[in-house]
Amino acid sequence: MQTASTDMSTKRPAPNRSRVTIADVAKDLGVTKSTVSRALNGYPDIAETTRLRISRAAERLGYRPLSHAQAIRTGRVRSLGLVLQIDSEDSARPFLANFIAGITQAASAENWTVTIATAETDEGVRETLSRLVDEHKADGFILPRTLRQDQRVATLRAQNIPFIMFGRTDDPTGCAWYDIKGEDAMRAATTRLASLGHTRIAHVPGGAEYTYSKLRIQGYREGLEAAGIPFDPDLIGAPSLTRQSGDASTRALLALPEPPTAITFAVDRAALGAYRAAQALNLRIGADISLIAYDGVPEGAYADPGLTTFAVNSRQAGERLATLLIKRIRGAAPEDLRELAPATLVERGSDRPPRLTPTELAQHLKHQSTI
Amino acid sequence: MQTASTDMSTKRPAPNRSRVTIADVAKDLGVTKSTVSRALNGYPDIAETTRLRISRAAERLGYRPLSHAQAIRTGRVRSLGLVLQIDSEDSARPFLANFIAGITQAASAENWTVTIATAETDEGVRETLSRLVDEHKADGFILPRTLRQDQRVATLRAQNIPFIMFGRTDDPTGCAWYDIKGEDAMRAATTRLASLGHTRIAHVPGGAEYTYSKLRIQGYREGLEAAGIPFDPDLIGAPSLTRQSGDASTRALLALPEPPTAITFAVDRAALGAYRAAQALNLRIGADISLIAYDGVPEGAYADPGLTTFAVNSRQAGERLATLLIKRIRGAAPEDLRELAPATLVERGSDRPPRLTPTELAQHLKHQSTI
DNA sequence: GAAACTTCCGAAACCGGTTTCGGCAAGGGG
DNA sequence: CCCCTTGCCGAAACCGGTTTCGGAAGTTTC
Fold first, then answer.
1. Going from the N-terminus, what domains does chain A have, and what CATH number goes with each?
2. What is the rounded CA–CA span in Å between residue A285 and residue A268?
3. Residues A148-197: pLDDT tens digits?
4. Which end of chain A, N or C, is less surrounded by CB atoms within 10 Å?
5. HSE-up of A179 (CA within 13 Å, CB side)?
6. From CA A351, how far away is CA A368, in angstroms rounded?
7. In Å, how far is A230's CA from the nearest CA of chain B?
8. For residue range A80-123, what is the model confidence (pLDDT) as tens digits?
9. Closest CB from A96, A101, A137 relative to B113
10. Quick check: A135 and B331 CB within 8 A?
């Protein structure tokens, strides 16, 4: 027998305070457990008056069913799984807090919880995911950063485990998703630059393995087409996800015989690298060279001039993803759970009419390099 | 690799679509469930040879106990709880990814998981915490951002639920914690500034309700004392947690008759506000005014000049917190689970010998304000 | 050589729920 | 008036584990 002592230093592990069980509720009303269970779970063979009596008694006694006790029979733990990849590079992700907040909020609203795990590598993610699946720690999973060909998708699809993607993928069979229309954003960005007077507009894409990269390039090309500007493959820069590679990619584009006077970036961080390149080459952003990017990272606001970008509402993304995933787990068809939302333009100072023509810019750059 | 189908001697050619349970393992070896359970859980009344046979069979069959099935009897769900407060202001927390990565890594290592939830307000946090406790979604909790008097602590302590704090609190009874020695950092910062030649050194604290604020002020005062500089209450600025309030707080300090030539900040973000103030007042940071802060946010590296700061390893913090909490849940006494780690100095350009004396600085500022 | 321990494992209860099955009573149709 | 539904709920099995209890062997003690 455990006696509740006031000694805090004892090595006693278990709180072991007696909770209110379904049997307590049943006894209180003089009915059986099964009646209580069915009443609380909305079975049709319980009289309405009884249901009311029971739910009131449950409320009064403070009865809360244990989800893991339910799970043993139902197979549902009422939890959403999220496996994040935290690599050393971009571990500083400000969006994460909001994303998680969105997910947990929507989950809480349905009285679900969120089980989170992390890994550093692709393989680590897959292993962790497998473990969570094997131990049934979650009823379904949110997959961020989806690739064009994603092994996580293949695995979960094969095992028939509910999931939802934050992003899209090449083969949509059996997939539900929520995604931001990056393609629209890039089309709008390109159109906007063209209407400012730019004629040489480049694009620095993200990693080729990501679906969004393909889509954003596509949007960029649509924008060109709408503006009547011919597509020039040279103006697709090297894929860049970091400041450093964005810097390099920008320099390479500016070294072209006919350099771009404007660049669209698939991700903000790469665009921030362009600030460095511009400084080194003595170019003024928003005058000699214009930039529009995508993501809406806070650093963009502190850059000088501020980075014009298409911001993603990651909190909303988390909310919708959780909501849709719960529906999926409850049996909705994946085809009915596909949502796209727009990114919103944040106008700052990095996009302006061109001060120089591409030729003049080339001259200027040549002059710089000889100093 | 698991080969279930190639084994011809299996008694059940059943297409084992469902998971392998403890009964499957038992039947495979011709023992009972109880024997398997005790063998796998290290009970002493199982022969070593039997234990080996069983654990090998479990391995071979790919048996993974369901933690929620175990939980129903043991009361342990093998999960750590984390309730984050995500307020609209400082939701952009880059440290979060690393913190979570640390926690989940340590948890995974013990085959535990992490249940995460968020709330916006203090009260929301308490409610969410209560819900997780009531439904026993976690066996113990990590409490970040502890206050000097923290209701979460009171609640969990009263219900005898294991928890660990990231930070300290006024009444340590029954508390385990991991914390960074912010007091040491502030002492070192002050000493460092003093040895650079500063004699008027101010401190901008964090919110008064946080334990760390008290400790960092204390460290600051120790540093003054060690340097033989008398403490001047006027040099304790207004509590600041944001860029904006840091800006205001800095201006107020500089408006003193004898302004400080150096300021220590309890948090980086407030120090970044000082950059604005300096710019507005035409002061050069690292010359006219020196700064040393605390946290190690990435923005500090991009400031110009870079912000000298004491960086916190939040990944390690997460790791240790999870590790200690698991020990706590397993029965270790809270008094034995108290760890302090140092912050590490990141030298950048914001702290230099003073160019002006306080009096000269006051002159300079007066001159600025008349322009 | 019998009593007293040990060692090791099976049988069964148990944890807190859900779900199946069947039965009783009231109601409706013939 | 009887039979057949229908509505409603109790009894009991069940989910996948853990834990208690007891007993059959083997070992030691006297």
1. 22-65 (1.10.260.40), 79-180+314-341 (3.40.50.2300), 182-312+346-370 (3.40.50.2300)
2. 15
3. 999 999 999 999 999 999 999 999 999 999 999 999 999 999 999 999 99
4. N
5. 24
6. 22
7. 38
8. 999 999 875 554 566 888 999 999 999 999 999 999 999 999 99
9. A137
10. no
